[in-house]
């Protein structure tokens, strides 16, 4: 027997283990933190080098403008702007790179804006240089010289900003390099210190465990000496489980020498054997169940048993105590006590026989002894002159009446029943008593008794004795309640079976049970319906069911069936069947094997998945069509991006040059036509850009980030400063929330909605835009739109512009839909469609309400994050 495992407390070891784990976690976390600090320092140094490189690219870029060769290339490239456009794109890329790299540096970020403006001035001056150079007169030469001076001045200002940025980066490089060296040198020292502390904790733990081990050995030796000298049988058992985790027996792990002394069993021979194998009387006395109960309920169990050893009867008093992973059974030899009890019992029986002989002539006392555990009463009949029983006199009541009615037997004896228990005349009990006397046969009946607001039920037997009746009563409240519960359970079972049948019909599911030994199958009613038959219309077997399988699927069906029978492992698979009516259906089958009454049985379910498979085929077809449409859309994007915009840029460029050189020679009609051409080209370019923006709006989970809508609004107000100022628009806003979304799409949403409010202003009053915010429940969405979200951010854009007729509230969100002529208000008719697509990509909703001449309201609902 392993005393260490049974008696040793694990609390100390658990505490030591927790301390060691905590130290290990602290060591790991501090090491990780130090490494991350070192890595962050290295990343900061790398970031500075990237800024250096970007500034170097900037130097290379603007230095080209100083080169006469570069300027000659610009001047000579008169038929194509590609060379100069590439140069501008290169500058834009450098500025974008610097803006990205310096977004965490407020000083650099402030310098990027003027630096970008200076580069734009430089490009404009280079274009002017190209235009001036194309003419050949003295004034033009002077203008060319002036332009070169402007270019040099611009280059000087760019160089100044660049030098200041380089100086700041050199200072940052010096600071970050010092920080990196500090963290790099500190990491090994920190690791060494923490490792030393961890080693100390493990050494302390080892010493503690070793000392406890010595104490356990000492306790083990002491316990063995006690068990060797005790007069009791001491055994330790551990449970044995079957395949379904039920305890079927116990294994003997320890047995002391008293097994040899009392039972003739050698301890070493029975250790490792099963309890039922060594002590078969455990099963006959149901003591195995007591052992299992003690183990499972963690409670002590006491029982006495008699065994015959070498034809000699012996009695043992056993105490079962749960211990560790088993039970400890201590049995003491109680043979002397039991033999004394037998002698006492023999004497007692002799006395009882003598008393019975004395009471033979008193039959009612015999009845009392027969029913002494119940309420026993004897009533004497009170008859009228005509011989009819009109009442009873109480002659005897045992003490069991007191807990029921509270009556004291001595107080109610010799009194009339009508005075003590008048209710029996109303409840029908009185009639049972009379029938028992008059018919001379026992009467059995039940009656309720109300006490303290509760109802108790009693079962009574009335037996005639002389001219009276003896009533034996016992309480059956528990039996009554159990009977009612059984009735209720049966009703619930009927309801559940009805629900299951309905559920199978709705879900198109049937279940089956298949006996492998004879091939007989039992299937549910709905399975018959799925095959086109009425329930029990035919007897189903494996061979009979094969007839329903589609011929093209029979080979696979047989292969899968053979594999399942060989491996006894069910597999989910789908096949086609032909119903009685000739309909083709798809069935999906799955199941499992169980043992039922010693036979291997397969149980499972069959589901009609015809609609699902047909829907999947339709979905595949729809996906293919969608894929083709996406390919067409991508093709359109390429055409719109390059083939359509390139001619427009040529038209704009040559129109600009014609206007610069020939504008003075235009007639009034020519100027009008020329302006219409320019406006048409600009509108066409705006239309293409909006179409591209609409088609490119896409989103995925990785695009999401935390977006502060207050910052978005501030940026848009800054971008639209000119429009807001010129139109004298007043913008009033509540504090807006932070959402999960895509920043540039939110900026585009706010830009379009605010621009619309400015564009469609009312001529009779100054434009005013109010942006209101509140958090609302999903149930407050218009039209009760289906959603899984509980709360939404409601952002309303209210203006006092020209408004619109409410019947067009949905039309205005469609592509190319306009409520006004393009001569009245500029625009492409795509802006609100872009807004709708952005909101829907963020799992939100957008609605519009309006009133002509009064104003419009655009309401955006965006999902609120769940706490």
From TrEMBL:
<dbReference type="InterPro" id="IPR004358">
    <property type="entry name" value="Sig_transdc_His_kin-like_C"/>
</dbReference>
<keyword id="KW-0597">Phosphoprotein</keyword>
<dbReference type="InterPro" id="IPR035965">
    <property type="entry name" value="PAS-like_dom_sf"/>
</dbReference>
<dbReference type="InterPro" id="IPR005467">
    <property type="entry name" value="His_kinase_dom"/>
</dbReference>
<keyword id="KW-0812">Transmembrane</keyword>
<keyword id="KW-0547">Nucleotide-binding</keyword>
<dbReference type="GO" id="GO:0000155">
    <property type="term" value="F:phosphorelay sensor kinase activity"/>
</dbReference>
<protein>
    <recommendedName>
        <fullName>histidine kinase</fullName>
        <ecNumber>2.7.13.3</ecNumber>
    </recommendedName>
</protein>
<dbReference type="Pfam" id="PF00512">
    <property type="entry name" value="HisKA"/>
</dbReference>
<keyword id="KW-0808">Transferase</keyword>
<dbReference type="InterPro" id="IPR036890">
    <property type="entry name" value="HATPase_C_sf"/>
</dbReference>
<keyword id="KW-0418">Kinase</keyword>
<dbReference type="InterPro" id="IPR000700">
    <property type="entry name" value="PAS-assoc_C"/>
</dbReference>
<dbReference type="InterPro" id="IPR000014">
    <property type="entry name" value="PAS"/>
</dbReference>
<feature type="transmembrane region" description="Helical">
    <location>
        <begin position="12"/>
        <end position="32"/>
    </location>
</feature>
<keyword id="KW-0067">ATP-binding</keyword>
<feature type="domain" description="Histidine kinase">
    <location>
        <begin position="639"/>
        <end position="866"/>
    </location>
</feature>
<dbReference type="InterPro" id="IPR052162">
    <property type="entry name" value="Sensor_kinase/Photoreceptor"/>
</dbReference>
<feature type="domain" description="PAC">
    <location>
        <begin position="571"/>
        <end position="621"/>
    </location>
</feature>
<dbReference type="Pfam" id="PF02518">
    <property type="entry name" value="HATPase_c"/>
</dbReference>
<dbReference type="InterPro" id="IPR013655">
    <property type="entry name" value="PAS_fold_3"/>
</dbReference>
<dbReference type="Pfam" id="PF08447">
    <property type="entry name" value="PAS_3"/>
</dbReference>
<feature type="transmembrane region" description="Helical">
    <location>
        <begin position="186"/>
        <end position="210"/>
    </location>
</feature>
<dbReference type="InterPro" id="IPR003594">
    <property type="entry name" value="HATPase_dom"/>
</dbReference>
<dbReference type="GO" id="GO:0005524">
    <property type="term" value="F:ATP binding"/>
</dbReference>
<dbReference type="InterPro" id="IPR036097">
    <property type="entry name" value="HisK_dim/P_sf"/>
</dbReference>
<keyword id="KW-1133">Transmembrane helix</keyword>
<dbReference type="InterPro" id="IPR003661">
    <property type="entry name" value="HisK_dim/P_dom"/>
</dbReference>
<keyword id="KW-0472">Membrane</keyword>
